[in-house]
Structures are given as structure tokens and as C-alpha cells.
Amino acid sequence: MQRIAFATALVLTGLCALPAHAITLDQAMADPDWIGPAVEAPYWSADGKTIYYALKRNGSAIRDLHRIDPITGSDSIIGPDAMAGADGSASVFDRDHRRAAFIRNGDVFVRDIASARLTQITRTPQGESSPQFSADDRAIQFRVDNDWFVHDLASGVTGPAAILSAEKDPQDSKPDDLGELQLRLFSTLRTIKEGRDASKSNDEAFRKQDPTRSPLPFYLGDDVKIEGSALAPDGRHLLVVTTPKGHDNGKVAKLQHYVTESGYEEQEDERIRVGRNLPSPNSLWLLDLDAHTLEKLALSALPGIKDDPLRKIREENRADAARQDKGDSKAGANASEKKDGDALERSVTVPDIVWNRDGSQVAIQLRAIDNKDRWITTVDFAKNTLLNQHRLTDPAWINWNFNDFGWSRDGRTLWYLSEESGYSQLYTKQPGARAKALTSGRFEVSDPVVSPDGAWFYLRGNVEAPYSYDVYRIAATGGALEQVSHVKGMDGFALSPDGSQLALLQSSSYVPAQLGVQPAGGGESRVLTDTRTAGYKAIAWPNIEIVAIPSTHAKEPIYAKLYKPADFDASRRYPAVLFVHGAGYLQNTELGYPNYFREQMFHNLLTSKGYVVIDMDYRASEGYGRDWRTAIYRQMGHPELEDLIDCVNWLVATQSVDSKRVGLYGGSYGGFMALMAMFRAPDIFAAGAALRPVTDWTSYNHEYTSNILNTPQDDPIAYRRSSPIEFADGLKGGLLIAHGMIDDNVLFQDSARLYQRLIELRKDDFELSAYPLERHGFVHADSWYDEYRRILKLFETHLKP
After folding, report:
1. How far apart are CA 458 and CA 440, in angstroms?
2. For helices 639-654 and 669-680, what crossing angle results, to 10°?
3. Disulfide: which of 284, 301, 381, 689 matches 791 by Cβ 3.0-4.6 Å?
4. Are 431 and 387 in contact, with CB atoms under 8 Å apart?
5. Could you give the angle at which helices 177-185 and 187-209 cross, rounded to 10 degrees?
């Protein structure tokens, strides 16, 4: 993408002119049923003739299953009477695409494509999953929890592929000294034992040779818990993931409910806080089902497994503690009590395992618990060892996105996504050989799908611009990256079973995701649905500009959505509001329907009241590559605030904004940033609303926070540097804090602690609004209305002349 050194404005396509009337706050915050539901989770039928999708029912949380003919557009709801004949999602096919297997309502079904005959394989109260055809296509293999079963299609017999037991092998018990004495003294006891042992050996021999018998159990020991498993399609090997039994998950506090049906206060368990205990380490076992052997796979083959990427950070924190005269610091001891200089193997987790089609190769993804490394390995079955195929390492953290991997259709080539170039790109690799980058550039690709003939990879990518997403494809052997769709707001896609068509989830700024279909080789998308209500479609929504704001701290511009009054007059000076999106790693400057559709309507309401509004993808946002994402490592709230200040300066310089009348608001991560702005740049932001904000990162969860800030035990500097409560004394302007009291993501305690801190600091222009029946994402229209009524009042009070 060509570098943009000045602000540009791109008008979104397909939108109407100026609105006939301004939307009201009550309408903007009403139940979104008045807008119309978005199409969800489309998938093709097994024969590729129809498309299924889910649609929320008006006035209900229920999702109906629809089936639509992509040629005629005939659309029907699958009711209970028709559900027995419906296909499930994520069908898998045999080699010749003559049969498809899928899960529906937790049971396994097989569809014969030519005859359309549907056969139900299971009908159980358990939930089956992960169906796959055996290597010879004679059986269906599926999983129940972590146990695998095999259904023979010819005989109709179903049995376990392996029996796993997290117990000690009862036959491994050795007699103690008293038992040995008994056997030495009494020949009759020896004869009984010899007969029992001979009978056991004979039974085991018959069970191994007799295919009609259930297999012998595998005993993994009573000190482990089984977490996952993956069966080879040829039925020869099973990989099992375990964690130590009794792993301490840390203290769990109670979340208090005050408004309840019973009339009494009620409690539920909260989540674990960051650093209270590390995730359970995984071990990997290889089971040979034919030889009935099991081997624990060593991690020693993983390059860098003995590295200590946090050593220098712990040293920095110890030195800082010493400077502050805090005495003996415990910052150098993490949960595993690893000491600097020890060459210990780091613990890992095993997120996924993928076998190739014939079971001759397996790919395993492993991630270091410290979040700095990701490995993709294969297995040497002759030596029972891991073979590293790819290591992705990052001094900040490995992205939680872009970790897809798998095998080519012929099962000989490994493919995977990696951010090693700075952007998520697609690579292929013959095991043991050098990797090949199929895609490259300053854009991101995701969601790779291999075509049924194995000739193509289909991908979602933002090649044209960071905010414009479409389907692309590239030959499996390499070549030019071809743009297939041209909708710009492509939220997802599904390739038809024969590889000839694409079902698209496509949207635009004011149109929720709709279902489209087009040829897989390229062409125009035909939109099959329009789920918007007549009332919503009647509103003439204003255009939104996407602008590129020059950054004073990064080479790339900061992309943002700009909203201006319909009667904008450059000779006037306007108040401005900055919206800060949540999640940190989320993209809201896109050409598709936004996550924050209510906020988008609120922004239009603000422009009708004379505000300029901007919504920017600050550093940490998704869609802009690795460096944009990791700029916040160990300093959350600092690069983002620099970007917000750049935005304010640009608004003042180019958009007639009054520098003394600037406010901001946001929820979750956006609420955290609203606090950082109000506390650390109080002379720039006159008012701010922090919704469900993180105020102290030591209270947030482990999975998210430890990626960016490490743990409080290893890196207390990063937590002090990044937590708004540490900067609360800087508050000068008007502050609104709003929080759901049963929020189980960002706990209400965050806002309560900050409120107490502001009281003790003798601040006088702040307010806490609490919502007893709301969790992190509000669901009740009354709460939405009350919250945004207060936000509007805050801005009208502090930002108007």
C-alpha cells in the first residue's frame, strides 16, 4: 500500500444523501429489532444446491435456520418437522465427494450426495463432534468428549477406537514385601497367579487379533487430566493432550447480584485474575493403537524451548524495586519458580492438532505459556519424536489471530499463516524443506480455505486498503494473488462443495450483513437477502468519510471515520467528540457494518447537534500488521493516547474544531482509554465517558493481559505504567463512569475502586452510573438509553459554549 503523507477522504459507496430527519436518542438505543437482524453463519448444503443460514427471530433471542435457493432466491425457515432432513454445518467429504458427514444437534449424520439419502449414525444424549472419514472411506470416525469412536458404514457397527483412562494401570501394581513372602512360601498361590496371568495374556492376544472385540484400555496415570485428542484417519495413532491433575487455578472470588428474582442477594464465581496462576501446562502423548503402546513426546526438539524471554524484564523490575527502596523484590520468581540462568524447558499449550487425509502425517501447534513462541511440528512415528517445521517468535506476544494451519489435499504439503513478515501471510512447506511465502505485502490475509480440487487457496484480505475486505485466491503452487469479490465489506465467506461458488456475508456502513453469492473464480455478487425493516430502510443516512490522519509517532497514517454536521461551515469553531473502540485489537474503521452500530447512530445524532465526531483505529487496532498491534507492549494507553492527541490536533487544524471543547468516550478498552486521556492529557480533553472500563490491569483476566503486559509478578512496571488508577490525580475535566454491576468480563470492582480513589483525591466533577442487571455488553434498551442520555448530557454540559 502506498504511504499516505496527508489526509485523504474516501466516501463510502452505496449510501444516501443527507438524512430527512435526525435520529432520536430513544430510537438509536432501542432494541435493534427495529433495524432488522444480520444474516449469521451461512453454509452450503452437502450437495451444494442450497445455502443455510441463521437469522434472529423478531422479539426473541431464538435463531431460526433458513434454507435459500441461490438461483431462485426461494427462502424458507426449517421448522421442527423439516429439521430431520436438513444438513448440518462444516460437512466433511470422502475422497470422491460421494458422501458427506456432519454434526446436527450433537449427532452424526451421513449424506449420500447422488441419492440425497440421509443416514443418522448416532442418537445419544452426549454431544458428538469432529466427524471424519477413515483413510479408506469405509468408516466414520467421531469424538465424544475426548474419546474417539468408529462407525463401520457397511456393517453399521460402532465401537471405540481407543479407551482412555486417567488412572493407574491396575495390572502394574507390584506385590509388597508381604505379598512376595506369600508367593515364596505357598506354591498354590503361585499356581493361581500363574494361571491368572496366562489367562490375561491369552485374552489380550485375542483382543488384539479379533476385530470384533473392543480394544484394551490405555492407562495414562492418575496424575493427569485428559484435555484433548486427535485420531489418525487410518486408525493407527491417537494423539492425546493432558494437563496435571489438581493444577491450582488460583483464587476465585464471587460476583454479587443485587436485583434478583428471589429477592435475595445471589453470587456466582468470578474469573481468575492475571498472574494469580498460569494456565495448565500441556503434555502430548502418542498412542500406537495397533501395538498398544504409548509414548510421552518430549519438547526438546522445539527450537528456543529453553530460552527465557522474560529474564531482562525481571532484571529491570528488580532494579526498579531496589531504586524505590522496596527491599527484597520477588519480581524475579514467576509461577514456575524459574530462576535466571536455569536452562529449563518452558511450558506449552497445544491449541490444535491436524492429521492429513490418509493419517500418514500430523501437524501440531504448540504455544509457549509465556506467549512469546508458537511452533508447528510434525511427528517422526518411527522414533516417537517431534519434528519442528516452523517457529514463530515475537519479543512482544504471538497474535491470538492468524494461527490457522493444515494440509494440502494430497496430504504432502503443510500450509500455515504467520506474521513473521510483519503482516499475516500464507506459507506452504514440505516437511523438512524450506517454507514458501505464497502471499506477501503490507496487508493481512486470514481464513484460508483449500478448494476441493486442491488447486487454490481462498482467503479474506484487506489488500486494496486496510479498511476494505474482500475474497482473494492464489494457486496452491504460487503465483499472483487474484481478487475474487468486490464488495469491500466482506465479513466472511463459504466455498461451495464443488468449489464453483462462494457464499458471502457482505455489509456496508448502514446495512447489516446480508447473504450474497457469486462465482468462485470472480464476478458480481448477487445479494440474496435484505433483512432490514421498512422503517430502517426509509431513513436516509448521511455519508461517512474515512480519513488518513498523519501520525507524529508512526510511519503509517491513522485511519478514522469522520462525521460532520450537514451544514458544516469552515468559518465556525465546533466542539468535537472522539469515539474510542473497545477490545484494543479490534478494527472499527471499515467499509462494513460496524460492531458499534448504536454508537454510529449516536454519532449522527451528535452531528445534528453541532458536533464533529471521529472514530479512529489507534495503534493496537486490528488490520494494520504486527508493529501496529504490538506498539502497546508493556505500555498500554501510551501509544494510543499519542494517536488520540494527533487526531485532536488534526481536527483543530483541518476541521474547524475548537481545541478547548474536545471530549471522548468509549467502552471496555475504549473506557480504559477514556480514563487514560482524562488523567494523562487533562488540558486536551475537557470531558470523557468511560464505559465498563479497565481501571487496573492487575484485576483483568490472564489470557488477554499477560500477552501485552506479561504478569504482575514478572513485570510490575508495565502494570503501573498502564493502569489508569495510577494516574487518577490528573483529572481536571468532567468524567462519567458507567458500568454493569454483574459484568463478568471487566468486573464492576474496577469502577468501584477507581471511584473510591477519586473520592480520596478530592476530585469534584465525576459520576458513577451503575446498572444492576447488565453484564459487559448491555442487552436492555432502558440501560442503553440511560447510559447514552448521561453521555450526551456530559458533552452538552462541558463542550457547548
Report:
1. 15
2. 70
3. 689
4. yes
5. 110
* Chunked mean pLDDT (size 10), the chain, 801 residues: 35 39 90 97 98 96 97 96 94 96 97 97 95 98 95 95 90 78 88 86 73 85 95 98 85 92 94 89 96 95 96 95 67 44 84 97 97 98 97 98 97 97 98 96 98 98 98 97 98 98 98 98 96 94 94 97 96 98 97 97 97 98 98 98 98 98 98 98 98 98 96 97 98 98 98 98 97 97 98 97 77
Residue in 237, 234, 355, 222 with CA at minimum distance from that of residue 285 = 237
Return d(Cα 666, Cα 646) in angstroms, integer. 18
Q: Rounded to whole angstroms, how far apart are CA atoms 735 and 182?
A: 82
Domains of the chain, with CATH numbers?
A: 9-34+535-799 (3.40.50.1820)
- Claim: this prediction has a pTM higher than 0.85: yes
Helix, strand, coil shares, percent, the chain, to 5 = 20, 30, 50
Grid coordinates given for 708: 501485552
Set of cell numbers at residue 350: 497445544
Q: Among 797, 773, 798, 799, which Cα is nearest to 786's? A: 773
E strands within 534-583? 545-549, 558-563, 574-580
Handedness of CA 309, 314, 320, 322 (dihedral sign): negative
Residue 69: count other Cβ atoms within 10 Å of its Cβ. Answer: 13
317 contacts: CB under 8 Å, gap ≥ 6:
329, 331, 332, 714, 715, 716, 717
* Phi-psi group of 583: left, alpha or beta (phi > 0 → left; psi -120 to 50 → alpha; rest → beta): left
- Please, is 284 exposed, middle or buried when counting C-beta atoms within 10 Å of its C-beta (0-12, 13-18, 19+)? buried
List C-alpha distances in Å: 127 to 66, 130, 178, 353, 722.
Answer: 23, 10, 48, 20, 43
The answer to whether the beta carbons of residues 159 and 150 sit under 8 Å apart is yes
Q: What is the DSSP letter of 130?
A: E
**CA quadruple 790, 793, 795, 797: dihedral sign:** negative
**Pairing verdict, β 425-429 and 435-437:** antiparallel
DSSP state string for 402-469:
---EEE-TTSS-EEEEE-TTSS-EEEEE-TTS-EEES--SSS-EEEEEE-TTSSEEEEEEEEEETTEE
Q: Extract the C-alpha cell encoding 512.
A: 447489516
CA-to-CA distance for 520 and 90, rounded, in angstroms?
18
Closest CA to 614 of 653, 571, 663, 551: 663
Residue tagged 453454509 (cell numbers): 43
**Alpha-helical runs (H) found in 220-333:** 311-323
Q: Which three cell numbers stand for residue 308?
A: 527465557
Supply the DSSP symbol for 485: -
**What pLDDT is stored for residue 337 in this prediction?**
45
Strand residues in 289-396 grouped as ranges (E): 293-296, 348-355, 362-368, 373-380, 385-393
Length of the chain, in residues = 801
Residue of 517, 662, 456, 636 lying closest to 578 (CA atoms)? 662
Distances (CA, A) of 210 to 148, 206, 215, 552, 783: 19, 6, 9, 74, 65
Count Cα neighbours of 26 within 13 Å in the Cβ-side half-sphere. 0
Residues 6+ apart with CB under 8 A from 523: none
Strand ranges across the sheet with 511-519: 490-495, 501-508, 511-519, 526-527
Show Cβ contacts of residue 632 under 8 Å, excluding neighbours closer than 6 positions: 584, 619, 620, 638, 639, 640, 708
- How far apart CA 508 and CA 523 sit, in angstroms, is 19
